[in-house]
Amino acid sequence: MEAAPLPDLANALADLGLLMHTRDGGTLGVIAFAVLPSPELYRLPPESMHRLRTAIVGRLREHLRRNDRLYVLGQREWLLVLPALPGAGALPLAMRKLDRAFREAAPSIDGLRLHLRTACGGALFPDDGSDALHLVQSARIARLQADREGLPGCRYEPRFEKTDAATQALDAELRRAFTNDPGLQLHLQPQVDARDGRCVGVEALLRWQRASGEWVPPATILAAIERTGLRPHFNRWLFLKAAQASRRLTDAGFSLRLSINLAAADLLEPETPDLLFQALATWDVSPASIQIEITETGMVQEAQGALAVLREMDRRGLHLSIDDFGTGFSSMSYLRTLPVREIKIDQGFVRDLPQAGTEREITESIVRLGQRLGLEVVAEGVERAEIATALLAMGCHRQQGLHYSPARPLDDLLDWLATTGRSSTAIR
């Protein structure tokens, strides 16, 4: 009989909060443990990867004390909570013990012996974090540092987070941007029905032009948001800007569903749905006009904790889309439990079409899967006419990319819609 799923990050934070307030001696520590990516792992089929994760969990449990606790953080990352340690020196000993456990006896899956590379990061309460989330973050940062330095494990140190002057200046400017910087914007990229050229939706994409005139890459913006703890501020800004844009599109006569991207971890925050629906109410926008996009990898990692929030959003009329579909290296069975209405093919598979090969086979498989499940299938990254034609031949009608239009400021998009005649039918 298969073991019950491990509790996730939300459970870990709740349990740590309780432990922090009820400690009766000893030191409270946490360890973030990860199996590092390798070609061997990426070549494993989903079923073998599932068996490997089960074997890893079993081995971790073998090295837990009676009161220790184990949680899942991601596909290849776990959290160990260690209450009542005899002292700070016990933390590095525990990390060395875990390193030996996997280095000296490689697990065997389907007859293949896998030599896994692992890394541990440790943190102690209250020195490395005065609350549950900060403590877990410190352990994960230490785990990243161990990976960078090629170490089996290390304890958190503040120096791991030191940044240079240029990064500090960018972070400071970004903090101000959410209140009074017109250079921080949402640009909207059309999604087109390739059969007749109609615009059937738009995706909101983050853009920022600093006071110096420099355009900051979106990945850099998002990294700074996470680094500075601005995610709650960003989400409030995002929800209001998206609702405002949707209202203007509707008022101009265009019934287009607007997609916004959220991190899967946002769905573990209880206030996220309320903030979003408050923004929609402020601008009198129907929830059916908004779609939430979550990357597949993030959704697989957080599906257990986020399921209740996703179902509530679906019940209240929002749509859910899985972005970068095909990159999650996991069983697709979660599509049966999540209220998903759309999947977006990762542009890495689309870019090399219409050439024959693995990418084409994967793309065709995703299109057929979506059709069988009654889901909308969108291809993004469509940059050339021959790619659009190949996708259309596969039955993928909804397409997005530079072949049709770049992401545009809202005023520019309204002009484009009006002059090209590419207005949509009503939102379905």
Strand content: 15-25%
Strand order across the largest sheet: 8-9-11-12-13-14-15-16
**Distance, first to last CA:** 43 Å
Please give the share of residues in helix: 40-55%
Give the overall shape, derived from the CA principal axes.
globular
Taking the sheet with the most strands, its summary is:
8 strands, mixed, barrel
User: Any idea how many domains?
Assistant: 2
What's the pLDDT, averaged over the residues? 86
User: Would you list the SSEs in sequence order as H and E?
Assistant: HEHHEEHEEEHEHEEEHHEHEHEEHHEHEH
Number of E-state strands: 16
What are its keywords?
alpha/beta; 22% strand; 8-stranded mixed beta barrel; 428 residues; globular; 14 helices; TIM Barrel; Alpha-Beta Plaits; 5-stranded mixed beta sheet
3D structure, described in words:
The protein is α/β, with parallel strands linked by helices and 428 residues long. Helix content is 43%, strand content 22%. The chain has two domains: 9-161, 2-Layer Sandwich (Alpha-Beta Plaits); 166-420, TIM Barrel (Alpha-Beta Barrel). An eight-stranded mixed β-barrel has the order 8-9-11-12-13-14-15-16, surrounded by four helices. A five-stranded mixed sheet has the order 2-3-1-6-7, sandwiched between helices. Helix 6 packs across helix 7 (218-228) and helix 8 (231-251) runs parallel beside helix 9 (272-282). The radius of gyration is 23 Å and the shape is globular. The two termini are 43 Å apart.
